[in-house]
Structure formats: C-alpha cells, structure tokens
C-alpha cells in the first residue's frame, strides 16, 4: 500500500532540491540551466508561485519578456504572501515594460508600490515607465 504522506514528502524534498540548485545557477549567470530546473520543480508542483516567479526573472534576464509575463501572470493566479505578490507584480511590470507596453507596466509598478512601498525598484520602475511614455510622446 502506498503511503501518500511519504510520497508528498518525497516530492516536496525533490522539488526543493531542484529549486535550490536553480538558485545556484542563477547566481552563476546560467539562466537556461536554472529554467530547466524550475521546469522540473514545476512538473512536481505546477502551482508553486516561488518557482514561477523565479523562472519569470530568468526569462527577463534572458530577454524573453513574453515568457516572463506568462509566468508572472500564472503566479498571480494563486494566493500568496504580500512579498511574493509584490515579486510577481514586479516581474509582470518588467515584462510589460520590455514588451513595450509602457502604460500597463506603469499600472503594475504603481500596484506594486501600493503593496510594498518600501521597495525602491517600484519607484524606479514608475520613473522608467513615465520616461518611456514621455519619450514616445515627444517623438510624435
């Protein structure tokens, strides 16, 4: 007879090993390998928003904003703590910015600022998005 508690525990440990190894690869700048490991972790637990957010960041660092946006949006579907919510919102805002959707990125930078006003990266994002919008308006 299968002990489901032990199986869940084993899956949890295996997922943690994938995530821990992925973080090492991120620190070493090996984002493709990190994505591969996050994929393995997400195969075990598809709604792990920490892995989704981390994979979103990797996609941003690889210049793949569409994939980053998809992961951020998937993470935002699940309930999470404010810190994780802020990280997912930041990834979504950054992805939108790099896709050239400056207005929507500005909306998400503001949403993030509302949740975590102490995060300076949201203020920088607001300024960056406003500057991009102004540059477009001045060109036309």
From TrEMBL:
Mapped TPR repeat ranges: 15-48
Assigned GO CC terms: axoneme
Tagged with keyword Nucleotide-binding: no
Protein location: Cytoplasm, Cytoskeleton, Cilium axoneme
SUPFAM superfamilies listed in its UniProt record: TPR-like
Pfam families: ANAPC3
InterPro entries listed in its UniProt record: ODAD4, TPR-like_helical_dom_sf, TPR_rpt
Primary localization: cytoplasm
Keywords: TPR repeat
PANTHER family tied to this protein: PTHR23040
Protein's name according to its UniProt entry: Outer dynein arm-docking complex subunit 4
Organism: Apis mellifera (Honeybee)
Gene (name only): 551469
């Amino acid at each position: 007879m299968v002990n489901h508690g032990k199986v869940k525990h084993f899956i949890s440990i295996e997922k943690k090993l994938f995530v821990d190894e992925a973080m090492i690869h991120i620190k070493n700048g090996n984002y493709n390998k990190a994505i591969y490991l996050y994929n393995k972790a997400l195969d075990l637990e598809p709604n792990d928003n920490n892995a989704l957010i981390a994979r979103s960041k990797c996609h941003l660092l690889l210049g793949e904003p569409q994939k980053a946006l998809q992961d951020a949006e998937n993470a935002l579907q699940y309930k999470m703590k404010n810190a994780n919510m802020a990280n997912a919102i930041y990834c979504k805002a950054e992805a939108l910015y790099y896709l050239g959707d400056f207005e929507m990125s500005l909306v998400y930078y503001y949403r993030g600022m509302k949740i975590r006003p102490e995060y300076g990266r949201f203020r920088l994002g607001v300024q960056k998005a406003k500057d991009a919008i102004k540059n477009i308006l001045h060109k036309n």
